[in-house]
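Q: Here's a chain of 484 amino acids. Please give me its 3D structure as tokens.
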Amino acid sequence: MTDYPTIKMLIGGEWVADGGAGTMPVVNPATEAVLGQCPKASTEQLDAALAVADEGFAIWSRTPGIERYRILRRAGELLRERAPEIARVITAEMGKPHAQALPEVSVSGDVIDFLAEEAKRQGGRLVPVRSASLLSQQVTHEPVGPSVLLTPWNFPVNLAARKLGGALAAGCSAILKPAEDTPASAQLLVECFVDAGLPKGVLNLVYGDPGPVSEHLIASPITRKVSFTGSTAVGKHLGALAAQGMKRFTPELGGHAPVVIGESADFERTVAACVGGKFRNAGQVCVSPTRFLVARGIYDKFVSEFAAQAQAIRVGDAGADESVEMGPLAHERRVAAMQAVLDDLGGESGEVVTGGSTVANTNGFFFQPTVVANPGPDSRLMTEEPFGPIAGIVPYDSIEDAVLIANSLRYGLASYAFTSSLDESAYLGRALRAGMVAINHFSVSSPETPFGGIGDSGFGSESGEEGYLGYTETKLVTVGKAGI
């Protein structure tokens, strides 16, 4: 794109284009063209960001909640006003269609709005005393301190907005380190907060090699909270680093979402919803439906229709053609990962019904929408998150068997089900082991509701009331009568 912004870091209210550790190219995954150069923060620049975040926390934590609310609400308004421009940058940086990028930005403004409201709502509570010698007992939620926010490339604005909204609403200062693949998307988000009047030093933006940057920021005694969205393996490593300093840690990690499809489900509506949910953002979604568990009576029909609709998806460069329904994978490593999944489908089982390879005669990191019927239970597709456009479909004989398969992994982010039976709906809502369960739809994320998982999918939540409280510490103040 010709109007790709110059990438800059924000340290202490100053925009910095020069990275002390050099630069790295930002590549359009649909064309493999270099969009621009992203600065890499040096150790000295990271230390500067930490120092001003510490100073910013002293100011922002004392700012009245109503004032924090006003600034954050203005940031949300600016984000919605600038949504078309920011969406174009998202499409260029990570490939998702404009029709998906635009609502990502708009909804991010709504997330910030909701969390801003929490800044004036969360006043704590009074607890009745149990003794005449006591005057009061008050519980408050105090901001935890400077927070390090680590975000991935697949939703470069939304995931950062959740973390920033919660941290800033609670009164914390923040250092945002976004993915190196999508720096401009994060930068345009940060610009909204700056232009809304956020004091200098309260929000800082740095880039660089993920491992060294994250480890340096987490190790600092200034950092008091770490929030990370990414893979389970990296999340466990960062969690161990945070634990060494007894720092609050919120990991939103991988998922491998099952979809239980009952025989009573509205067939046409269910298939259409499943295809749309699976191939949204080329399957590069932590809550993407991946393991489709289908009642045996409708299994063959479901596989046939699902594959036909998947094959009809229009794949291409969404930046050049707005009719494209699925863009590329984010980088070349994801293409190799898809092929590795398909190379291990479980011995004699596992039939690739449609797709199964890269898209011929194109530049970019494109992979066909792929449907695999009956992959082996021990295959990589059924045990490891593919994080791409591959769906595995297996039959089940009883609803209890479906739940056993759904709950067989240590992942527990999202689970889904489609059924017209109230009994099945009630049973599945209770029995599916996940932080979020959706029945007859795929929406598990809204500004008002908590987003998070269990098991190897992490702990804690973002968005909703929980997204605010995650950046606070609970404090009890109890007052007795003088002279007693």
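Q: Can you summarize the key feature?
A: The chain has 15 helices and 19 strands.
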